[in-house]
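Quick bug: histidine kinase output formatted oddly.
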Amino acid sequence: MLNTLSGRFLILTVVFVMLAEVLIFVPSVARFREDYLLNRLERAQIASLALEADDMLSTELEAELLENAGVFNVVLQRDAVRELRLSSKIPMPIEATFDLRDPGAFVLIRDAMMRLFTPGNAVIRVIGAPVREAGLLIEITMESGPLRMAMIDYGLRVLALSAVISAFTAVLLFLAVRAFLVRPIKGVVGYMQRYAAAPEDARGIIRPSAGVAELREAEEALLKLQTELTHALKQKERLAQLGGAVAKVSHDLRNILTSAQLFTDRIEESDDPLVRRLAPKLVGSITRAVSLCESTLAFGRFEEPAPTLGLLRLGELVTDVIDSERLAVGDGAIRFEAQIPPHLMVRADPEQLFRVVLNLVRNARQAIAATGGEGTITVLAHEDDQDWWITVRDTGPGLPQKAVEHLFTPFQGGARKGGAGLGLAISAELVRGHGGVLKLAQTGSDGTEFSIRLPKGDGMA
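Here's what came back:
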């Protein structure tokens, strides 16, 4: 119980109330001491009035008056004349004198605490002003022991009352905290647990009902989170089902298109001029369809295998990529350049890095070819203390805004008409597998630039 919110509130309430009572206790005891001494002065003054009525008091009556007043001697000063009105034998020397005619708060508290924590009995002199202006001052001598015992008794009663008040206050606060905080918080936790156990069950979605503003905000935030997460889970499930169906269809379609691609090789040998003219377009269409199916199947595996990292010469890999793309364009208007330091070695999976660079270069080549004009594709690389950097830059028309917004999103980030947007999504996934980042550095009417960062890490040889 003590490690719960309400239990800790209970403990803190008791501690703080007792602390407040201690702060009140000190001036209270000081005030009690002052009242006690003033009462002794008043009783002594009343006892001295008996002498006013009869100048010849017996010794026994005088002793009885002093005992009832709780003092040893009574001195009254009138008109600058000090007069010993009542007296008895003082058992010990006077230890201290206290003037109550105009005491400060600090002096009262100091004297009270000294008396409270000083054990034993002593004789003290107390000076005060007579009541009803019966003189200039009244002075008494008395024992300090009874005063200290009365102060201790008063202090214990104050502390006992403080304990009762703190306990009562703590119980009330405990019940209030449980009603207004703990119960609503447990309700929120219960909704979270039910939702975590069965996200598809709509009964686990919270219904905000808290009256406390902060808890209400927490419930509304949880409601928004649960609603968005439920929609995301449903969408993910539908995409998974769709992905499985698309993968099956793409597999069968690829086999069909591969067979059709073989037939087109025979069609190209036809002597019919019309067939010979349309055959290349048919071949191109089938080739693009096969490529789309293969990309869809690759993405449908959900994750690429972990890269097999090793040191490789980046210049040779880039040369292979450029040679492959040159075959696709022949001696056209697209130029390829490689600016790779001859001895630059990078730590990567050679097959996966080849696919990433090939995809970026091929996208650049297709973008430039779509314009029908000239262009240049440049692959650059450098290294610093922490990373290797590979840059693919082209002088093409730049990416459309829609493609930039969904660049690495499958089936949404296609930059060219008819593209599926899988190439960049797969490339980004492969680079992340190396611990790196693939990002669009810049794009515009003067060209596009992609940047690959591969961390060197602790495994560099």
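Actually, after a second look the formatting is fine. The longest strand covers residues 375-383. Closing.
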